[in-house]
Amino acid sequence: MNFDRKFLVCALLYAIAGMSLGIYMAATDNHGELVAHAHILLVGFVVSFIYGIIHKLWLGQPNSAVANLQFYIHQAAALILSVGLTLLYGRVVPAEKLVPALTGGSLAVLIGAVMMLYMVLTTRTVRS
């Protein structure tokens, strides 16, 4: 599976998860997990979708090792943030226990973005 398709599939899974959480919050009239909902949709859905578009439109043959590493770093980070923030704002796990994971997840999202920038700057584009 190409990276554009991998990112698209992951983006759609995060969209489903984020919308499901939003529907749950509306149905229960409890919007306490709004921050988790927003992060699932933004980091998981929107950023993954944008990375898929970048792969489809601009990256012809990216360095496969860098592209694989970037894909898995971003997806792991998005999952860590999604689960961690859901547990935090759902008041399931106290903040002091989640801070290391959430910090690592946040830094991993940043590292993934830097890696994507590197690929955009160093990879021959599909179209000029």
State the major sheet: none
What does the radius of gyration come to?
Answer: 16 Å
The helicity comes to over 70%
The total of helices stands at 4
Low-confidence stretches: none
Domain count: 1
Q: Give the CA-based shape.
A: elongated
| Terminal CA distance | 24 Å
Q: Give me the strand/helix succession.
A: HHHH
Structural class, please? mainly alpha
Report the sheet-strand fraction.
under 5%
Q: On the 0-100 scale, what is the average pLDDT?
A: 95
How many extended strands? Answer: 0
Indicate the topology:
Elements: H1 3-28, H2 34-57, H3 64-89, H4 95-122
Description:
Helix 1 runs antiparallel to helix 2 (about 35-55), helix 1 packs parallel to helix 3 and helix 2 (about 35-55) packs antiparallel against helix 3 (about 65-90). The chain is elongated, with a radius of gyration of 16 Å. The protein has about 130 residues and is an all-alpha fold. It is built from four helices and no strands. The mean pLDDT is about 95. Helices cover about 80% and strands about 0% of the residues.
Would you kindly provide a brief summary of this structure?
Helix content is 81%, strand content 0%.
Q: What keywords describe this structure?
A:
mainly alpha, 0% strand, 81% helix, elongated, single chain, 128 residues, 4 helices
